[in-house]
Amino acid sequence: MNEQAPPNERVWLHLLLFVLTLMSTTWAGAEMTGRYLIYENAAPLFMIGGMAISWPFILDGFIFGGSLLLFLTVHEFGHYFAARYHGVSTTLPYYIPFPFNGIGTFGAVIRIRQQISSTKKLFDIGAAGPLAGFVVALLVLIIGFATLPGPDYIEGMPGHDRLKEYIAQNGAFPDEIIQESPEDGSLTLMVGMTPMYWILSQFFSDVPPMWEMYHYPLLFAGWLGLFFTALNLLPVGQLDGGHIVYSLIGQKWHSRLAKSFVLLLLLSGGIGFIQELKPVFWAWDPLLGELLWPVLAGVLFFYLYKIFDGAFNYIAPALVIMVAGVAAGSSVDWIVDHLGYSGWLVWCLLIILLIRIDHPPVTYEERLSKKRKVLAILSLLIFALCFSIKPLYIG
Fold first, then answer.
1. What DSSP string runs through 281-306?
2. Does residue 190 contact residue 223 with C-beta atoms inside 8 Å?
3. Rounded distance, CA 71 to CA 136, Å?
4. What value does the mean pLDDT take over residues 148-177?
5. What are phi and psi of 334, to 5 degrees?
6. DSSP symbol at 118
7. Are 204 and 145 in contact (CB under 8 A)?
8. Mean pLDDT of 179-195
């Protein structure tokens, strides 16, 4: 029996947002792929800002945008149908177009219109989205790997002169990143390796390096599917991973795990902060370089104050441990190169201010069935396979 009859949906609004998001992701995908330069002689359909828009341009973009939206749609409708199954009133997905962030979207969300009353319902609704979306991301990646062109595909991209020269001489991609000349103007988008991506890459040839993968629409869309799956499965607050962990181990242990995980992200963020800013400030003045440490301590104090609700008996030792951890990590090149990522400082701010670390209690605490426990463990495994500590940044 439905707990609440769903009100009338503004279907037109959801469709409009879907179309706008498809348009913005298609445009982003076409520009990112970069092959439109080899289609200069193709008959243009229309002109935008002096750029000739041809069918090949649109096709390249649609492969990326359509694949990414397929993932987002299946993920959100996983939540939607699970909620409707349990009689929980919810909206259709709201797609979020944004043509200025490189991929054309900030994702999609549904809005639960009422409190979820039991842990079983909470688990089912929380797990359905990432489990369904992961299947799509996996399929997109497999198709992308199976249809990979040879390394000479990069010849159709703008710039990358040194990389093209290397491929012409060796017939393969280099093992290490090739830095292009400043005059080349090529974007170096660094994309983090995830365990799932690495496993799949071992079964195929002509796999591009991670720093050139964004030129391959299916691969990048599939990787983003893994990335968004991992973000949603972070075991904090009311993210999907927070719902799953809360349902599996209860409020007390969820709180401990969520706080510990956010502290680890802050540690990575602090190491990345020092790595990226200290050389810049030292170039201006060595004193400014050293002043970064009290600045970082102040930033970490703010986070810890929020995490521990102003309890100084926890904040003080945690701050000492965090600063010492950042100092130790920043002195080891391997840790700096592989584990330091300043972007987590931004993500942790969003978690603390918007998502929250602790999960609100539900009305009825119920033990999960064995089947649900298996799905919970599977969800956590998927998180481990999709997560990258340094996911996406400009190199």
1. HHHH-HHHHHHHHHHHHHHHHHHHHH
2. no
3. 6
4. 82
5. -65, -40
6. B
7. yes
8. 67
